[in-house]
Design a protein that fits this description.
Blueprint (H helix, E strand, L loop, with lengths): L1 H22 L15 E9 L4 E10 L4 E10 L8 E12 L2 E8 L4 E8 L5 E6 L7 E8 L4 E9 L8 E10 L1
């Protein structure tokens, strides 16, 4: 009888602790510095494959635990290449005082980024992880005046992970 009582008490205690820990919220991410990104944006830019136009949005989701970016770009027909549309999705999360992002697009790319601010805190820089047999990517959003933002997407070739060259440069205006 005593063993049964101790066993029942032990099981009840474990259930109680697991219920409490499930209800305890983890530290909420601090997105204060990222607020300039939040909203809907319209952009125009130049680069490869051609000049395009599009838009994107940054929004909070999962009760402010993540930031979701949805983006599209429409490109006109150029020298034998038909018109096409690029769509992508990126999800940002914070854990252990660092911000990470995962990017997916309709061309089958998946990119894992670390996210940091420039020293002057005017730019958010997404830097892809270093994979020896792959190019490396850097995406930078920089605050500008009058509800505008500058965007720079750069690529470093395989084997030269820090030799970035401009691929797309754009300006976006808040909707």
């Amino acid at each position: 009888m005593f063993i049964r009582f101790v066993s029942l008490t032990f099981v009840s205690l474990i259930l109680f602790i697991s219920i409490l820990s499930a209800q305890q919220p983890k530290n909420n991410p601090n997105w204060d510095s990222y607020h300039f990104l939040i909203g809907e944006w319209v952009g125009e830019g130049t680069g490869n494959p051609s000049q395009g136009a599009g838009g994107f949005s940054f929004s909070f989701d999962l009760q402010n635990r993540i930031v979701v970016r949805k983006s599209f770009a429409d490109y006109p027909a150029v020298k034998g290449h038909p018109t096409f549309r690029h769509d992508d999705l990126m999800v940002m999360s914070q854990e252990n005082n660092s911000t990470r992002a995962i990017y997916w697009d309709n061309e089958g790319h998946v990119i894992n980024y670390t996210v940091e601010f420039s020293k002057d805190t005017n730019s958010v820089i997404f830097l892809s992880e270093l994979i020896p047999s792959s190019p490396r990517f850097r995406l930078t959003y920089t605050k500008a005046e009058n509800s505008t933002m500058k965007i720079l997407f750069e690529i470093a070739p395989t084997g030269k992970p820090d030799s970035f060259t401009k691929y797309i440069e754009a300006t976006a205006h808040r909707k």
